[in-house]
Amino acid sequence: MTGPRLALQDGTDTELRALLERPGHAYLFVGPSGSGKVSAARAFAAALLCERHGCGECASCAAAEVGSHPDLVLIERSGPALTMEEVRSATALALRAPLGGQRQVVVLRDVHLGRQVMPALLKTVEEPPASTVFVLLADGAGPELATLASRCAVVHFERLGVDWLTSTLTAEGVPPDRAQLAAAASGGSLVRARLLATDDELALRRDVWMSVAGRLDSTGCTVASLVSELTELTDRAMQPLRSRHREQLRHHAEHAKQFGSDSVVPKKLLLEQQRREERRARTEELQAGLAALAESYRIRLTPADRTEAQRPHSVEAVRDAAACIERAGRSLVRNPNETLLLQSVLVRLQQHV
Ligand SMILES: [Zn+2]
User: Fold this and answer.
1) Which of 82-91, 206-215, 219-228, 301-310 has the lowest mean pLDDT?
2) Residue 135 in contact with residue 105, Cβ under 8 Å?
3) What is the distance in A from the centroid of ligand 1 to the CA of 262?
4) Which of 69, 236, 317, 342 could be cross-linked to 352 through a Cys-Cys bond (beta carbons 3.0 to 4.6 Å apart)?
5) What is the mean pLDDT of the chain?
6) Residue 308 pLDDT level (bands cut at 50, 70, 90)
7) What is the pTM of this model?
8) Residues 41-47: what's their mean pLDDT?
9) Strand-pair category, 132-138 with 153-156
10) pLDDT confidence bin for 99, thresholds 50/70/90
């Protein structure tokens, strides 16, 4: 079978192609965040929906690629875990008839965060109408997913390495220095690495985060001004994603005009997806910033890497600072108030000024 790649990893790509020969009704893609599961799910769905099994050229393939195909629905959690409401909406979609062709694909992300709703999810996945195909995505396959996995064809995704990402970006025309920086800050995600590669302020943002520890004093006023600087920096980092979203909306409107409004996903659903994508990108950006901040403490332990302005810290102080920053990075996923979280991190770090 020809057509565009289905997965970034060669082995996984071959496996998905083999699965397309005899499509089943449910798939579970398992692999770390950033390993390309979402784009693979999209490509796999495109191949299932296309009359020519994923030619990459027809209107159906084009709509699937940009996320506006009416029979390809992507459901994401809006909070820390999948909710009953989100599973119900997947169920309702699974039960409807395809809008465009013979088949529809329902992609549900983060099923590893759905312990509470697993019985409902299992029931839905076990009894879909023949025209519905489920593609479930999980960052890991813990024991709580065993029953679900037994109902699906399981496909594994490996993490994308910094070297692989760097050479991929370089092959796409990104200058090597920039490719390396973007790959290292991407957390193993090609989507984020590509965004960062077009981001002129990436190096600047990293420098600002690295400078925070040296600028802290014992006043609340400094904390407040650093928090507002970091928040603005994060806002500006969202610009490449926002322009990609504007482009997606433009394509959506054009497609609707050309093929009718039934040929595209409802605009409300698309806007909702974009909002969640931005939330996720913002979390990743803040996590990358916090990682740079933690690094700025660690390098103080190595005199050779320390600049004149940076005073040495005790091992305990560095350990405490790094632990506090890492905790904050993890708790960002639970959607806390960003400003309050940054404030509490910086207040804690003031102890080590
Ligand atoms: Zn096609």
Assistant:
1) 301-310
2) yes
3) 18
4) 317
5) 87
6) low
7) 0.68
8) 95
9) unpaired
10) confident
Rounded distance from Cα 185 to ligand 1 centre (Å) = 34
How far is ligand 1, taken at its centre, from the CA of residue 19, in Å? 17
Report the half-sphere exposure of 2 (CA within 13 A, side-chain side): 3
Task: Give the angle 349-238-7 at the CA atoms, nearest 5°.
Answer: 105
Distance, CA 46 to ligand 1 centroid (Å)? 7
Output the CA 264–ligand 1 centroid distance in Å. Answer: 15
The alpha carbon of 295 is separated from its chain's Cα centroid by a whole number of angstroms, namely 23
Residue 341, C-beta contacts closer than 8 angstroms, at least 6 positions apart: 328, 331, 332
Q: What's the gap in Å between 295 CA and the centre of ligand 1? A: 46
Distance (angstroms) between ligand 1 centre and the Cα of 273 equals 23
Question: Ligand 1 center to residue 57 CA distance, Å?
Answer: 5
| Start-to-end Cα distance in the chain | 61
Q: Cα–Cα distance between 256 and 242 in angstroms, integer?
A: 21
Q: At what angle do helices 220-237 and 202-215 cross, to 10 degrees?
A: 170
Residue range 109-125, pLDDT digits in tens: 999 988 888 898 898 88
How many residues would you count in the chain? 353
Distance 48 CA to ligand 1 centre (A): 9
